Amino acid sequence: MPQNADGTGVVWYDEEREAHRYTSTAPAWADPGLQDLSSSTKSSLFFGHVRSASANVLGESAAPVGDFNVHPFVHENISFMHNGAVSGFAGVRPLLEAQVNEAVAPAIQGTTDSELLFSIYLTQLDAISSKSSGGSSSNSGSSSGGSGSGRYTAPQLAAALDRTIGVVTATTVAAGVPHASSLNLAVSDGASVVVSRYRNALAASEQPPSLYMTHGSGLRVGGGGCLHWARPGDGGGNGGGGSVVVASEPLCENNLSSWSLVPKNTMVVVEADPLRNDRVGRLWLRPVYHGVNADEVRQRGERWARVQQRSAWASSDAAAAAAAATAPRAGLCSAAVLAQLASNAPPSPLTATLRA
After folding, report:
1. Dihedral over Cα of 153, 46, 210, 293: its sign
2. Strand 45-50 relative to strand 350-355: parallel, antiparallel, unpaired?
3. Which residues make Cβ contacts (< 8 Å) with residue 304, sequence separation at least 6?
4. Pairing label, strands 192-197, 227-232
5. Helix (H) or strand (E) run with residue 22 in it
6. Lowest mean pLDDT among 21-35, 180-194, 229-243
7. Is the peptide bond before 263 cis (omega within 30 degrees of 0)?
8. Exposure string over 184-207, b if 16+ CB within 10 A, otherwise e
9. Where does the Glutamine amidotransferase type-2 domain lie (predicted)?
10. Cβ–Cβ < 8 Å for 315, 151
11. 184 with 208: CB under 8 angstroms?
């Protein structure tokens, strides 16, 4: 039964690596605009997101349904989406907003933790690209490759995502948030894709939302949205070529063997061939390390020392775990639509899909 009914968004890049965005508050399976888009749009790189505006385990209210809250978010040619939640967001939001530079802040239009994460990411990316170019930039769209050009390197995009995760986890732990945050984040500039699977808790029982990947060459889409490779696993090395698909869940249950679960606290980094936008140049995994985690807060017994709305966090760890255990599993209802988008790409696309 469909679960994620609170909005659908797709971003695709043209040959000049400029981002184009479609969003709707309608469920993916009932959106004629998305159906038309999937049958007529071609690109070497797609981002797709199906939103569920559910309350988190701390009982915080869900962000309202509206186009302004639908992922992916785009700033110039940088696209971003999130699956998970910043734990205790209502209380730590002012602390996180203080981490955003003045040039980025006016771009925030929605009310979600996800869009604020994006603004923190843009701030970190701006700092990294400014440092590498030996100067300062006035906005996060500029880089060593020129304003809005999308010529960031894949390591720069990954480093900014790592620093964003570090800012969020350090802030929530310092504030005494007793529960971990799940930060499955995806970002692209049209040339590279970086996707994280992260949760700031050491316990093996505390896993972030799932994240899978598959790659190969000779991609085709069969019935039910199943992806089939003529040569599975091809194109994952430094030789390049092939296609990569990253998704919250396998798009089809009939070929699970071709999908690999991304390890906890790991990034997937995909870099396009510098000579051809429609080919994978490199694909690798990058660990995410941060020395702060929610376990330390629980062990010390700290409960929101710096947050005044304490009554909102009365849920115990056991209640939070129970809520997480009973949360509905995201449906695969929109897999066929996203797979159709992938099938319309050139023979060697980069594709990333996330659900939240």
Report:
1. positive
2. parallel
3. 88, 91, 175, 176, 177, 178, 310, 313
4. unpaired
5. strand 19-24
6. 229-243
7. no
8. bbbbbbbbbbbbbbbbbbeeeebe
9. 1-273
10. no
11. yes
Separation CA 193–CA 340 (nearest Å) = 20
CA dist., res. 253 & res. 335, Å (int)? 11
3-state secondary structure of 167: helix
Global confidence as pTM: 0.76
Is it the case that residue 3 has pLDDT exceeding 60? no
What's residue 264's pLDDT? 94
List all residues 6 or more positions away from 99 whose beta carbon is below 8 Å from its beta carbon.
120, 123, 167, 171
Q: Which structure tokens are listed for 290? A: 């941060």
How many angstroms separate the CA atoms of 177 and 95, rounded?
12
3-state secondary structure of 304: coil
Q: Which residue has the tokens 């700033």?
A: 75
Whole-angstrom distance, CA of residue 97 vs CA of residue 112: 12
**Helices vs strands, H then E, count in the chain:** 7, 14
Q: Which domains does the chain have, with CATH numbers?
A: 76-329 (3.60.20)
Contact call for residues 84 and 182 (beta carbons, < 8 A): yes
CA dist., res. 281 & res. 274, Å (int): 7
Q: How many residues does the chain have?
A: 356
